[in-house]
Design brief:
3 domains, alpha/beta, DNA-binding, transcription, elongated, 12 strands, D-Maltodextrin-Binding Protein, domain 2, DNA-binding transcription factor activity, Arc Repressor Mutant, subunit A
Length: 308
Amino acid sequence: MRIEQLEYIAAVTRLGSLRRAAEELHLSQPALSETVRNLERELGVDLLERKRTGAKISDEGRELLPHIMSVLDAVDRLRGAAGDQHRIRRMVRLGTVNTATVPLVIPTVREFRDAHPLTQVELVGAQQADIHRGLLEGAFDLGLVNYLRGDDLPPGFETTELLCGRPVVCVRPDSPLAALDAVDADSLLAEPLVVMRSGYVMHRFVHRLLRGRTPSFSYSTDGAEMGKLMVAEGLGATVLPDFSVVGDPLERRGAIAVRPLAGDATDVLLVLQRRHSGSVPRAVRDLHELFVHNAQTYAAATRRLTES
């Protein structure tokens, strides 16, 4: 058994196919497949499920994946302890819901790169359920997800609360809603509404807010970034956590504005999660700590803006 064989299995799991793993690893697909088959023969287990449409991790392989990731983490720690500063470090993979992007993620990744110039960071926008699955399977090292206050947290994860915000209405400054001090549900229903797709926390919140009523016209989009762009282009309004909008480049340039929801005191939480593990690579720990620090800085800056 060789370390690269385990790395190949991890790559196939993370990327979802043998072909994409071969492209990333700069190997031919037959060479990658044969290397994996040698490991399967040694272990006596079919790690991949092979079909005409491609290959992906099998159920048996998924059960062994936590052990494979533990071995790779241990190898990382050994190499780090030996002072091997010239190798290319294992990539840190971050799954993030799209409401967590610009104001917090970009500064954090920038600072992490300064401290870890040889470590690659892969950012993947995904829904909460996909992030949880990726954390359990080792496809993600960390996950940024949203909850509404009172939601049950899934077992098996270490959860750190980063930000607590409120749902707000995101509008263009020339929208009729921008003239209101606060926007109620009836006013929201009168305007075209950009709604997050089913599976996002804000989709669930808006459905609860409107109590099953439908707006005059609505769009469905797969993430806050596209929603904010649609608002800036005058297509309608959307409802997002305030931490997704305040400090966003579009908001700083005056292309979008924020109005509170009348009579609503719902807390939206942005949390950072990782699976429970006996050991965590140093790069993952450092990225985790940067998120915590920058979330505190962002929250303090937002409070100052609100109070001024």
